[in-house]
Sequence to fold (592 residues):
Amino acid sequence: MAEEHNAPENKQALFEDDQPLFGRGMHLGDRLYTFIQVRFLVAVAMVIAAVFAEYVVDIRGLDVRAFTLLAAVLFLCNCVAYVIARPYRGDYERANARRDLLILVIDISIAIDFLCLTVALWLVGGSQSPFQAFFIFNVIIASVLLSPRATFAYVFFGYALFAMLVVGTWRGCIPAHYPEGAVPRPGDGPLDGRYIITVLVVQGLLFALIALLMTYLMRLLRDGARQLRESNRELDRLSRQRRDFLHLALHNLRSPIGAVSMLLSNLGGGYAGPLNDQQAAWTDRAQHRLRELTAFLHDLESLALLESGDLESYMQDVNLPELLGAVVEENQDLARQHRHALTLELADGLRPVRGVPRLIREAVANFITNAVKYTLDGGRITVRAMNRGRFVRVEVEDNGVGIPPEAQTRLFQEFVRVHKTHAAVAKVPGSGLGLVIVRRIAEAHGGRINVRSHVDRGSIFGFEVPAAD
Amino acid sequence: MEKTILTIDDDPDVRAALRVVLEAEGFSVGEAANGEEGLKVAERIRPDAVIVDLMMENVDSGSWLAQKLKEIGFRGPVYMLSSAGDTVRYNIDTRDLGLAGIFQKPIDPTTLVATLKAKLRDA
Fold:
């Protein structure tokens, strides 16, 4: 039987799976204590009801003594449960430490409840008694109080007892009790007034209990829905706040890094006088580390954006030729630094795509910078776009160092940088997040990412985005 | 004739780094720390080219300034300095601004000087 682990103040537990509806805000010790109190009331009510039926409604043949004995058994069992449960009332830590014991007490108590109910039903007429509706009520109570798994277990147990009673009475294995006035008269004779009173009292009681229970449940559900709405609003606000903060933090980190890097470039370029070999080497190393840091910050920002969960609102029809032209233009400086020829080839009749422009730019820029990094100086890098069914494929081809086949499958996993093993480009900076980001961008657009590569001949990285029409 | 470059950036170290390189390469340099100041300096010194930071004090003042420079009749090349994440984050279409080019921070001084010299020689 699954039970509550959370402290009373944890309201978020309301819709957790495999948790009972009632008492979610209470810990195990408190819940058991509440059940025990209710069970004492039930035992007393059984005796009062039997006396009332015998002496006020004039039900004949009702075994009041047996009823009282049954109530006494229930009362005594409940006393034992009370003695066990009392020390854990209001003590979450202690109750949690003895969780197994408390669950055992609950299990045994509920099993005794079903047994008592079956015996009580037997005493008031078995399958002919209007009291059998209390079984349904008990099932409802079980589903409210217990976890779903435990409810089904107990309902099966209760049904088995009920079936035993009905079949046993039918086959004569169990002696039948039909108190006069508590069950309908056999044959077509007029209805007994006492039976009418019994039916009215039992059904009235059931109606009232079910109404109370259901209105309580509905209130719980409404409260839960309200809490959920409030939590969602709060989550949205926190998410926006987190994004804004992250962006500000990243920008404020990048700015000084950029300034330091430019000052180092000036030093390295001899604008403050010539450097000796050691000074030049250290300046280069400092620049290299700064480039690594900048790339990592950039990747972090892209991942944060992808995980923000509100990409749908940014989706729009994208003019791919224009976008690709801009990305290629923006990266020409980088390509020129390595004497690469960076060109753009667009297929005729290229369809517009549906997507988030800044992410598509990011994906293409990522492929280009990778191609620049992993192609020996003076290489050739081509950006292409073409229609592919209901998608448009964008790819970047280089004639760089290539990737071994065994490494290609790991390329799109976090923090994997297979090129690091290649001597010619071993010092290329990178966080290992770039291709993961492109993969997530492609997936966010319902497309895929793939690579074809041959060592020392080059690679083609591509991804697909859906066509707009 | 000595060409004048106006650099607009809210980071004094970036302005200082640009000044050192540009002056060493024979340019005259004007500076401003924000968009409004940049506009005033541009009207006063009439630069041959402008280099402007896209994000100043966490606001996209670069795009605004590029537009304003056009409005006051500046016809020379405008280059934007940008951190890679900013154009993506703010979805800024730099092509709409009629820019001569974009330098991603940190700028390589050799590329910067070569680009400026080529552009201003053609002009």
Observations:
- Chain B has a mean pLDDT of 82.
- The interface with chain A takes residues 11, 13-14, 16-18, 20-21, 24, 55, 58, 83-89, 91, 93-95, 101-111, 115 of chain B (CB under 8 Å).
